[in-house]
Structure formats: structure tokens, C-alpha cells
Sequence to fold (948 residues):
Amino acid sequence: MENSALRHVIEAQQFDLDFMERMFEEADKLRRQVESRNCSDILNTSRELQGKGMFALFYEPSTRTRFSFVDAAQRLGMRVCWTENAKEFSSAIKGETLEDTIRVLCEYFPDVIVMRHHETGAAERAAKVSSVPIINAGDGKGQHPTQALLDIYTIKQCLGRVDDITVMMVGDLANGRTVRSLAYLLAKYKNVRIIFSSPEELAMKDDILQYLERKNVVVEVVNYFWPNYEDIDVIYETRIQKERGSTISEEEAKRFSLTPEKVKGLKPSTIIMHPLPRNDEVPTEIDSNPQAKYFRQAGNGMFIRMALLKWVLHSL
Amino acid sequence: MENSALRHVIEAQQFDLDFMERMFEEADKLRRQVESRNCSDILNTSRELQGKGMFALFYEPSTRTRFSFVDAAQRLGMRVCWTENAKEFSSAIKGETLEDTIRVLCEYFPDVIVMRHHETGAAERAAKVSSVPIINAGDGKGQHPTQALLDIYTIKQCLGRVDDITVMMVGDLANGRTVRSLAYLLAKYKNVRIIFSSPEELAMKDDILQYLERKNVVVEVVNYFWPNYEDIDVIYETRIQKERGSTISEEEAKRFSLTPEKVKGLKPSTIIMHPLPRNDEVPTEIDSNPQAKYFRQAGNGMFIRMALLKWVLHSL
Amino acid sequence: MENSALRHVIEAQQFDLDFMERMFEEADKLRRQVESRNCSDILNTSRELQGKGMFALFYEPSTRTRFSFVDAAQRLGMRVCWTENAKEFSSAIKGETLEDTIRVLCEYFPDVIVMRHHETGAAERAAKVSSVPIINAGDGKGQHPTQALLDIYTIKQCLGRVDDITVMMVGDLANGRTVRSLAYLLAKYKNVRIIFSSPEELAMKDDILQYLERKNVVVEVVNYFWPNYEDIDVIYETRIQKERGSTISEEEAKRFSLTPEKVKGLKPSTIIMHPLPRNDEVPTEIDSNPQAKYFRQAGNGMFIRMALLKWVLHSL
Fold:
């Protein structure tokens, strides 16, 4: 079995600029079809996918990501079977290894396996033994490459470019896999400047900082959020992930939250992103501000995942 | 976005007699098609629904209600994605608000969202931020409007009318959302008499009693179940909901249970209903009695939900 | 309602040799179609099943078995609705009996109900009240007849015959429903010899031993695994099921494990089977050995279940 020929989606690093451009174009097209409620057009342009099957293996619950993958596949005419919480529900509780689970599922001849797992590196381990493409839908503190792709797509959609921008990532940069994957992708663009703003104990890890240095990305690491960032194009807020062990005080967390006042200080073209779910770091008062793009960003997930499924299944 | 134009299903009060009549006629038609295993007829009369998508967001588990909604949608040719227990499994555990969850799901362009939630008023909150129709599949101690609709449908089906009847609701009237929603709907019919029979601490709440008074429904509130109810047309038994905090003793609960002896005292045309699941308040010896309609009643749920989906999606 | 006319799948005993031969032939055909990714051929030969509906009611989680049933049904063009863990999630927690649950689900007019339950005899109880076919996907320590069928199918596939073979079942024979069901089926073939190898407290139960005696199967019961089994055709390893109460020591368990050394002692035609999931009783070093058939065996599950669905629904 020639695994290397399979189109896995494991980590953000694997995407190059050409690839991303293709995905974004396809996502644009799919969004137009979906927005115009044009089901038959979608099915007509994805004939090869009809009757193919997707297994969605979620070891960690994630309604948002699962729904967007499942709906993406169903819209393309695919069969889908999923588990919501395999960590508790599957043979994992009987001591089965991830490798065995993947090997067994492959014997059912699915066409693609989407997986979310609580351990870093799980997707890569799965890809090593899988006879079908693996799509990483998040692995522990590791990566969440489809999220990174939809983040870049959102920037492109809203700003018209990804080159020549300043992105400030704010909040929990130590535990957030989305900011890690996003940093990898931003490094592929020209003249990108990244400001990492977080409490010291939640700072971006050195491996990413060193990677960005090698890629000549201008990086700034600060332990405050405000003031004086009028030249920022993208604010990427993140949630303090208490479930991954953050023990930051309420007060400290608040320093890295957005407020309507802070938003007023932004230039009008700055966009506000967030991978969601959010707590208080982005108050709901900001939602109606046209600079707030986080719901649009979440919605882009489905279109990017549809495009990725088409690519993975050689229909793009 | 003009939310008011959306056809939400939030509470029983919103249904008027004409609307209910249309739903019942459609449910009759759908039942005939399903009973004759005539799939293609159903699909032919619901062409507009094919390729549309339903998200079923169950924060509280409910196999019965979820299966009937999912199957209803699938029979109509719709795509369906669901969560079994979002309270434990979704971003809710990361502190995401219901409003955010609904906003994100709407960005995936579903055509309808069905939700079951543990908090009263949740469906209304969801409808306020949703860009697609919300169907309330039960919200805490609040309402369960599709259950109320299928209850009325069952009465109509079995008795041939809803006007001029006496309904006795028995058991846990304080915590049961089904009896609340049903009372609202019964009040729309002519010459309906309702007897609320429960332990005092589980009595029907004042808001409903006052509503019924305003609607000129003849109401009787009693704290015993038997004897002497030969003039009753419908006995609507309910389960003591221990999971919602009832602390009634076994002995006290038994006073409000049906027995084969009590059933013998009913006139032959009286029907016995129950929203299910049941415990001992309706012993299984009664199941084979033709007056027992609770399984039929449960089954009516799927047909009513099919009819509602068609209405919500402007196909009826 | 004439239940006796329904084609239930409750226990391995119900299958006779002719029936098994038909299932194996159909499974062979389906595998060829699936392996060649020929969806339309499958749908063309299962026209009667399209639009039919399956409810998969899993009271115990089992990703493997559920995925294979769900995918089997979907490949045949059926609608599917499932629950992953009904024991925790369904009305069962509100005290509903299995019988009531089945009765209600039948009112939704599914065409077949597949169920996995934690109590022995649950499938038979369900079949007694069901108006549609029940397929037992495992009931407690009871039976798992589709597993037994796929086990025999795997032996047939790999050895070319089931008559005239020696099968050694190893490990937890007291708690494993797969070995029980398999023993029943093996007894139907000619000149089969079975060696039961387990720690004494996990020995095969007397009811099976007596059944095999009545069927004139040559049986040997031993409390060691090795050495000297060069005449064995099938080694059927099983996992010590700690979740069902086994309290065997690590050291004792190890005596019944396979090792690469032990495998070297086998004749080249001996095949190694395991119902999976496995722990250490079959080390991964053995996986690449062509005699290891457990992944193939697991995959056979989907094809056998497709064939069974076709039979149950009178399409075979």
C-alpha cells in the first residue's frame, strides 16, 4: 500500500501558496452555490464524490467542527458515519490503540477518515497506518490545519490580501493549536509581521518562534495587549483554555480581552477574528460591528472543508 | 435579516385551529404513505425539501424525539446532522453561549435547526439570533410544542373531535412541559373541560390556570385520581419526573397511577394517553387494551414532525 | 402482528449451513463490488432496500460494530438513525423498559432495528415486542451472532473450508460472547475439534461444553496455551475483559498471549484470529505476518452485515 500517494491533511506546513489559492477559489465558488441554495450545482460539480464515504472519528467532542465536516461531505453527496466522543465511547476504553482503530476502519473501505484527537501527533500516527486519506480536525495541543486554512481564507476574503499585513494574536498562545497552525501558514506569505500578545505563562512556544525566525517573519512578543496598535490589520483573539490547564486569574485574563473602547481605537480596516468558542475576551457588544468577522470565519470552515474533501478525493 | 418572516416553532400558543387542521390532514396523508411503505410518493410530494439540511441540536438526550425528527427529515429527502448530548459534548462545556452556537451553525447555511435544551426559554433565545427556522423540541420545564401538537392530533384521530371533551391530566403537572403545552392548545377548542389531578406539590402552575380561566376553559384541580370519572374522554397520565426534582413517596405516587381495575371503570370510548417514557403509573397489563393509545400517540410524533418540517420549509 | 414471519437475527444457533453458505457467497460478491469502488452495482442489486430505514440502537458504545452496520446500510441506499450510547442517553435513564423503547421505535415504521445491549437476552426480549426485524449486535455476555458469522466466514475465506479443522480458542472464554457464538456455529460443521485454553476462572461455561458434547464436537479444555499445537488450523485469541469483571493477574494473562516465538511454532497454514479490540495478547509485531487475519476478519464484518441486511429485508 502506497501511503505516500494518499492526500492526507495533517499539518498546516504542508500547504503551499498555490494550493491555498486553489482551495480559496473553490471555497468561493462553493459559497456562492450554497448561498444561492443551489444544491444541484454542487452535486453536478462533484459527481466523483457521490457514493463515497467519510468516517468522522471525534475522540474529543466538537459540535462546530464535526457539523461543518459532516455537512460538507453530505452536501457533496457522500455517505457519512461519525462518533461524537470516541474517547469515552469507543474501544479506546478497552485499551485499543489508535493505530488498531484506524486499521479496522480502513477494512470497511471508507474513502476518507476525518479525526479529532486529544493527543498531539495523533493524526500523523493515524496516517502512518491508514490506507485512506486522513484529515486532521485537531490533535490535542498540536495542529488544526483546516482551521488555519479557513483563517487565512478569511483574511484574504476580508482584506483582499495576506501579504504585507500585521497580525496580532492575543490570549492563550501556549495551548491554542489554532494560533500555532496559523503562524505556520502566515510565514508562507510576504512581508507578514506577527505580534504575539499574551500573559507570560501563556506565551507562544519557542519552536514556533524559531520557525518564524528562520522564515524571516518579523515577530514581536509582548505581555500586554493595549494600547497603541493602530497599524494592525488583523486581531486574532483566543480563549484562555482552562480545560487544557491554564490557571490565569480573571483580572490577568481581562487585560487581554477586547472591549468596545479598544475596538474604537482600531483603524476601520482592521478585522477582528476568533476561532470560537469565546468566553468574555470578545464581548457580545462587538458582534454587530462590521469589523467583527468571527462568525463569518466560522462559516468559512464548511466551505474550506468542502474544498479540501474534493482535493483529498482527487476531484480537484 | 428579517427573522420575523421565518417560520419558527417555539410554543404551543402559536398554533391556531386552522393551522392545526392543516397539520393533521398532512400527517394523515403522510401516515398513509409511510404505512404503505410508499417512499417515492413521499419524496414526490416533497421535492422542495430534497437536498435541504436539518441540524438537530440535542442538549439533553432524547432518543425518542431525536429519532422521530431525524427520520422525518430523512424520509423527506433532507440531509441531517445531529448531536446526541450537546450539553456534555459541545462547546457549551467551554462556556459558549447558546446564542453563539446558533450563530455559528447558521453560518453553515442549514435550512432548519431542531433543538432540545435543558433551560426554559432556550428555543426563544435561539430564534432571536437565528437566520433559519428554529423548532423547539423541548426546553427544560418550558414547552414541547410538537408534543402538544401530536397529543391533540391523537385525540382528534381517536375521538374524531377535540371540541366538547373532558380531559384529565394526571401525575406530575408541575414539572411536565407536555401538560403545559397541551393545556395551551386545548384552550383553543370549544367547550373543553380539564381536570388536573396531582399530588399538591406537583400541581399545575398558576400561570396555566390563569390562562385557562381567561380562555373560559372549565378547570377542576384535585389532589386525588379516583374514583368517579365515568364522564372522562381522555386520561393523560404523566410520569413523576425524579430527574427534575420530584420527591414524592412511592405510596403517594401510586395513588395517581392507573390500574386494570381503574381502567374497567372507564366508559369504553375513553382513551388513555401518556407522553412516555412511563414508569409504573401505567402498568403494562393495560397495553393490550384497545383504549391504550400511548404507543400510537408516540408514533404520531413522526408524522406531525414531517408535516411541521414541510410547513417550516414553505412546502406546505 | 405475526412476529414469527419476521427475519430476526438473535443468536448464532439459528443459522444453518445452507443459510451461512448463502451469506458467504453474497458477502464475497459485495466485497468485490466495494473493493472495486463500484457503488452503482451495489445499489443496482439492492433496489428493494433503497429508501428503507434502519435504527441502530447502541446501549453500549461500539464504534467498530456500529460503523460497520451503519455503513453497510448506507451503502445499500438505506436511511440510518443511530444512538451511540443509549444506556446513558436515552429514556432508559428515566426508567423506560427496553420493551417500551422498541414499541415506540416500531411506531416510526423503521424497516429494521439493530441493537447492542448490556444485558444477556435483550435482543430476544426486543424481538418479542417488535413489529420489525431485530438484529442482535451483541447482548451483554450473551451472543453476538453477526460476529460469529463473520468469524466462520473468515475461516472459510482463509482455509477454504470449515469442516475438518481444529480451532483453539484462547483467553477469556467466560466473558466473551464471541467465543460462545462461534462455538455454536462451529458445531454445525463436520469433524470440528475445539480446544478451549484459558485460566481456570475464565473457562468456557458448561452450557456450551454440554451443547458441543451433544453435537459430537471433540472438545479439549486446558488451562495452558502452549506448547505443542502444531496441528491447529485456527488460533482464536481473545482479550481479558476487565470491564466485565476479570481479575486475572498480568502474569497469568501473559501465559495466554501470543508471541512471535509462539507464532514461529505454528504450521504455515494456521491462521490467527481475534475479535478485536486487543490489548497485549496479540503483540503488534505479529500484524505483518501473513498468518495474522484479524484485520481482514474485522473488515469481513461489514460485508456479512450487508448480506444479513439484504436477507432480513427479503432482498436475498
The domain at 3-143+301-312 of chain A is CATH 3.40.50.1370 (Rossmann fold). Chain A is about 40% helix and 15% strand. Chain A has a mean pLDDT of 91.
